[in-house]
Amino acid sequence: MLKALSFAGCFEHYDKVSFFISLPRIKLGTFKRSLFEWFGASMDIHEHGVRVGKEKRRIQCKHCGKQMSGWYRLKHHLSGVGGDATPCVQVTSSVREAFRTTTTTSGSKRGRSGDSNANEQVWCSYPNCLDFSSNGFREMMMTVSGRTIPDPHGSMFGEVLKEVEDHVEKVKDSWAVTGCSILLDAWVDHKGHDLVTFVADSPAGPVYLKSFDVSDIKHDSEALISLVDGLVDEVGVHNVVQIVACSASGWVGELGESYVGSKKGVFWSLSVSHCFELMLMKIGEIDSLGEIVEAVNMITDYVNSNPLALKLVRDQDHSHGLLDIAVLSSEFEFFMPYLTVESIFRAKDELAAMFASSSDWNKEEEDIAISNLVNDSGLWETVERVLKCSSPLIHGLIWLSSANNNQHVGHVYDNMDVIKESIAREFDNDELCYMPLWDVIDDVWNKLHSPLHAAGYFLNPDAFYSTGFHLDAEVAIGLISSLVHIVKELNVQVKVATQLDVYKVREGCFNETSQADQVSGLSPAEWWAEKASQHPELQSFAIKILSQTCEGASRYMLKRSVAEKLLLTRGMSSCEKQHLEELAFVHYNLHLQSCRAKLSEEQ
Fold first, then answer.
1. Cα angle value 401/423/301 (rounded, 5°)
2. CA distance linking residue 292 with residue 295, whole number of Å
3. Locate the HAT C-terminal dimerisation domain: which residues (predicted)?
């Protein structure tokens, strides 16, 4: 019934108030690379571990209690990068990020770890009042980074600043066609300050906008809305399609609720990875995930600390996932428990065979305990039930994140339906088993997703022209509300609505371009750019929607310590403040370019 609906006719009766909505790459030389490594997080490894044992030769992690052979292994344990140390599942994201930075930038030789600690202490002891032109400042920065740092007033820094500014301007120029999404990265520092960094993301790449200390206004909704509105005005109301938040709780969640119906006509949505995280948390509560993870972690630690056991597991095809946990979860750390459980589950038969192969495996008390776990059929039945619902979510998000060149809006709506159907199949379509899980997913998704997702589903030709496309009220409402808020001019809105009817019935240029061979091989936005020039108003509208990301700022792993130094350093003159802002601007934008390039290579 709805598929026969005329969008031009529907648009004439649309009530804007009735819907619940909120609205050439730089080459990194040695100097530029050093700029975004200058502000590496200051972390002393000795604050995160303690010596234990009779001879005090082993180190125990203060976060999870795991013991290891030395400080070097503790650093890799906390960072989740390199070596064969098991990644810590209890460490906070900020600590993991800090040690990941020092681990990856200080080289793989153990002899350099001590130097890194000494360098970190230099930054901590440096006076708060910074003189950027002084020899002391450059000496301090050179000590921290291990590189010769040019005078921020000098020509070399000026050239880099100019090049970064030119790059940012080119990205901003592209927003007139693709639009952009503003991403929030909000956190509380170790002294209790509420800080936030804003990034604008688009197909041309992410750019750093600004950072703010909102500690004094976090309970003032009007002040927060004014701050965000000011940023939207600065970027351009016609350019901003949506704001993607990092959380649904705290002041960010309250701001999202207050921003619904904002006069700016900008959508507010939650990062899709955080939505998935909330779903997994609720699903984990159903099956007591904590107890399962505890048992599986005992097995994992045993395997990783026993060379022969680790070799046996590595030799098995199904155990390969165990070795890639740190890599797979580097972007989504909340995956860690589930990836660990899934990897061990895949290797359970090989582990059971290992213990059964010789009595030598059952001599020690630990061997017996692990053997009993591996052969506990009740444990694996529970693990299998958890994986039947968690694995479709995890692998669905991994697929969404790794494909589509960061342009997710055309795929996320359909992807959620695919995930739910996959969960149903895992339980042999038994409603008593899968419906409680569907209810969890729907409860989170219905509260937090955006009308843009439904509009993207309709405008994705691969989905729309498939036999499985379903146009229900939610999709129709999402499409029309997106039209009203993205296209500001009434006469253009009417043209787009009329052209949507042509797209719907495959008339004109859509008759040929809707064929499967014309759709495959192109992203949805590329398809509209190449195939729909006869309908420029609809083409422009579709490209702006389909060019948006559904991910938040977390995927870019911004160093929050940079914003903390920028916002919380006291006693600076206006000149010094300007230079620190320029350094942060260069650092963040070089980091974002590097991170985006790395993500593109992995896709």
1. 70
2. 5
3. 508-590
Closest among 345, 305, 301, 303 to 321, alpha carbons compared: 345
Quote the tokens at residue 195.
């800080």
Residues in the chain: 603
- Please state, in angstroms and rounded to a whole number, the distance separating the CA atoms of residues 450 and 489: 22
**Average pLDDT by stretches of 10, the chain with 603 residues:** 52 39 36 44 71 74 82 83 70 74 50 37 33 46 42 70 93 96 94 95 95 95 94 94 92 89 83 89 76 80 77 56 45 72 80 76 75 87 87 85 74 91 94 92 86 94 90 92 92 95 91 82 90 94 95 89 86 84 91 84 63
Burial (Cβ within 10 Å: 0-12, 13-18, ≥19) of residue 70: middle
CB 252 within 8 A of CB 259: no
* Token reading at 453: 């997702």
Tracing tokens 């007033």 back to the chain, one arrives at 153
The three-state (H, E, C) secondary structure of 176-243, written as one string: HHHCEEEEEEEEECCCCCEEEEEEEECCCCCEEEEEEECCCCCCCHHHHHHHHHHHHHHHCCCCEEEE
